Amino acid sequence: MRSSILAGAFATGALAQGGAWSQCGGNNWSGPFTCVSGYTCVYENDWYSQCRPGAAPTTLTTSTTSRATITSTTATTTSTTSSATASATAVPGKFKWFGVNQSGAEFGEKIYPGTWGKEFIFPSKNAIQHLIGQGYNIFRVCFSMERLVPNTLTGSFDAAYLRNLTDTLNYITNAGAYAVPDPHNYGRYFGNVVTDTNAFKTFFTNFASQLASNSRVVFDTNNEYHTMDQNLVLQLNQAAIDGIRAAGATSQHILVEGNQWSGAWSWNITNTNLVALTDPQNKLIYQMHQYLDSDSSGTSEACVSADIGVQRVVGATAWLRANGKQGLIGEFAGGANTQCKTAVTRMLDHLKANSDVWQGALWWAGGPWWGPYMYSFEPAVDGNAAGTGYSYYNDLLRGYVA
Ligand SMILES: *[C@@H]1O[C@H](CO)[C@@H](O)[C@H](O)[C@H]1NC(C)=O
Ligand SMILES: *[C@@H]1O[C@H](CO)[C@@H](O)[C@H](O)[C@H]1NC(C)=O
Ligand SMILES: *[C@@H]1O[C@H](CO)[C@@H](O)[C@H](O)[C@H]1NC(C)=O
Ligand SMILES: CC(=O)N[C@H]1CO[C@H](CO)[C@@H](O)[C@@H]1O
């Protein structure tokens, strides 16, 4: 039946063939179901099949529900194959980066500047060293702009906070991994949405000047803009890019983030204007976040279904490819249960299979103060017990390291 559907689509001549890496099947997919010469349509799941490099197959697959209205009697050259078989033959990709958020320096979000060791803390070097030993090669180090520049965005740094932050970043990069300094500010400064794009640019020029010579730094313009004017999100991202490059930091990649908490699931509705961002170095990466609970907030241990991760990112995969962009899942997590584990696995397999556009992913989160937090990825160091997320997911996740 599936083969007759495919042959029917082909025989009508109404549909073009899919190009390299393009979608070629999936629930409600209305585009081509076959691929250009040299590419094979590989079933990934019911929502997504993709044209991957490879000889023309003797079997073609597509989702069971696709194109159910197209029928044909000319099914002669194709035969069916099971989804399981097709999945097993998927071309494995390779991530550039795979790692863990490092939380702590942004804690105490309403108390500024707060006290080190009371309201906030920097990540544990022993934990980072341990995770690097497990193979992880990127760490997103959260910090608070209110603590780094306590007076104004364009003002001078708090020297001690800057030193602790750069110590952490240098520790990571000296060990050969990549460090992402993450202003964990949601597009806000002391609770107010940043509207002064010039000041935002100056902040980034000043900040990037401190790190310009470190090519293993990956900049991040801000954590999770939300409920803001969409054009402002574009302008703030562009100001950050311009500010970083103006500091002479030209070798580093820059992670831009979107509105509505940078959600991958809604990227293709919410953040399409960010396609207009420009970088003279051409090193932008669109950082998206994706959790697998009912409202994508990462506040529940439950995952909606075993396929929810894939369902929530396939639109972003298509958006990145259609626009010639690169992406990274900068935050993801699931509870310590089998449904979540399957959902995480399937999402990561999807990202990895599409590593021409996805550069990698980072678990949310490590950090010394998470305690019994359901996603904690802190290993057993410094006298702490291993976190719930680390205990349950490390064996799985380390299989995805670059
Ligand atoms: C697929 O299309 C059917 C009707 O054609 C619709 O009921 C369903 O909601 C669609 N599913 C998705 C995921 O868009
Ligand atoms: C920086 O870290 C040191 C410990 O290494 C601590 O004593 C100091 O209070 C910290 N200062 C800030 C501002 O983080
Ligand atoms: C947008 O992304 C979602 C989530 O991945 C996907 O279900 C939907 O089909 C996409 N819509 C468009 C128009 O690409
Ligand atoms: C999903 C998640 O755990 N988000 C948390 C990230 O960390 C900040 C503080 O750093 C919390 O406010 C969020 O709830």
From TrEMBL:
Record-linked SUPFAM superfamilies: (Trans)glycosidases (SSF51445), Cellulose-binding domain (SSF57180)
UniProt-recorded Gene Ontology molecular function terms: cellulase activity; cellulose binding
Protein name as annotated: cellulase
GO cellular component: extracellular region
Domain of life of the source: Eukaryota
EC number: 3.2.1.4
GO biological process: glucan catabolic process
InterPro entries: CBD, CBD_sf, GH, Glyco_hydro_5
Family indicated by similarity: Belongs to the glycosyl hydrolase 5 (cellulase A) family.
Keywords, in A-Z order: Glycosidase, Hydrolase, Signal
Domain CBM1, first and last residues per copy: 16-52
Catalytic reactions of this protein: Endohydrolysis of (1->4)-beta-D-glucosidic linkages in cellulose, lichenin and cereal beta-D-glucans
Signal peptide boundaries: 1-16
PROSITE patterns named among the record's database cross-references: CBM1_1, CBM1_2
Claim: Cytoplasm is one of the keywords in the record: no
PANTHER family reported for this sequence: ENDO-BETA-1,4-GLUCANASE A (PTHR34142), GLYCOSIDE HYDROLASE FAMILY 5 DOMAIN-CONTAINING PROTEIN (PTHR34142:SF1)
